[in-house]
Specification:
By secondary structure, this protein is mainly alpha-helical. It has 24 helices and no strands. Keywords: Membrane, Transmembrane, Transmembrane helix.
Length: 542
Amino acid sequence: RTTMRRTTQIDVKRALVLTATFSFLCCCSKACLLPFLTLYFRQLGLSPSMTGIVMAIKHSVTLVWSPAAGLLSKRYNKRRLVINCSLVFSAVVLLLLLLPSVGKLGAQSSTCNTSDLSSGSGQSQLNVTPSQTLPTHTNLTVASVQHSTVSSLENAARNKKSAITSDRFEDQQKGSSGFLATLKEMDIQNQLFYLTLIIVLVWEFASAPLEWTADDGLYEYLDYADASDRHGSADVWGLLGAVCGVGGAGLVVAQLSCHVAATRASRSAVHFYSYTGLAALALPVGVYLPLYLNRKRDRANGLLKGVQLVHGSPHALLCAFTIVLVGVVNSAVENFLLWQMEDHGSTELHMGLSLALSLLSQVVFPLLAGRVSKLLSPGRVLVIGAASLGLQCFYYSFLWGPWAALPAQVLGTLSSGAVWWAVRIQCEDIATPGAERSVRRVYSSLCLHLGSGLGSFAGGFVAQRFGMTWLFRGVAIGIMAWCVCLPFLQWKAPRQRRINYSRLLAADASEASDSESEPERDWLDKAMENDRGNNNYERRLR
């Protein structure tokens, strides 16, 4: 049914429990894999530029397909089907485990203990020692055997090369063409890149609509029950789920022995299995998830309406461009921070705990927002938050040990918490009644993913050409330079005052006269005086 009857009893507590559970499981599932995904690409053998292209395509699919799928699922009332299909078909990411590794680093080079490596080197020495202690009269025999064995390898190589040449000649004679034929002629690294890109495209196409579609249905359900103000609790549970996912996955993978991991391409397979397992646990919750379709809110909640509101405010445009730059910087951190940590001896344990601390620190700033708002305007808070993000990246370029990245994660209180608090205030200032979520999505989805896509594409080439150290320094210098210019641009931009009608209706007349400023207090009186003046003028004309 497209709508609910008014006689239907709505259990808000049950809806909130299901919402919190679903948000926790989905965010925990994504956090088990997504932060470690580029590290797995490195173990496969992809270069930084290839990794950047794959992640840029991933953000581009999310940017375009998430709102489109949300709109289509609402139009045809298929939200629950889209949610369940996204959870089921997200398992296609397991196909990445079937790809062979062509990297120079072994699958266990960054995670095995030195005792395991020493035992392996001891075994190799035992294999070499007997040949060195052979009697003198057997050296000629061994040499002749070795000579015949290098000769046999050369003959086999020639035969294999001739067979490959004949196969290519036959393919050309048959007129074979297309992507598969082109892929066959590529070297193994390019083959791996294109196969990875195809799998990531299919996976993102299946999983991208999940968050957008579920959030729409849940919000409209709570709004129908006059409990939309409690929708924000799902974000808190989602953040806690992400903390548990990234920290738990890093801890589990770090505790595995190298002998267990030797049966797989790498120990990163645990991240993939954790991702799909938690998605499977979220599937029964998605079946009973409370959803509601309100077609009357299409105009008020349209994404186009949010874009128009942001475009009509100079301060909102400055905030949008800042979020695009934040997305560029975040892409460098998300794609290559773990590479930088791995180069300095960090394991999955260091990585998981470091990322979990960064997520936890974001919860602190809303607790301090009341005091900060009395000292600084939202525009200044936005500048401080973006500058803190640049300072974090600059710190990442000077890592020196496994735990070196941990102190910088505390800055997440300002770099992420402050930025998104300022964005929320900006949304409340420019949004018309009913369009707050649409304006917020312009920042959190469109601007952020646009910046992440551009940053991933450019950052991969920068990292390959100049190294990850200069990538972090470059994005840090770029966003800090913008933070120097942003206060001046905010000062020069014209400010448009918007009357908060809901606040006026909720407040008493006496309270409004004591708390509000003089222009806001007298707007109704002036309007009535103008109306009286117009009426008197019309009477004089008569």
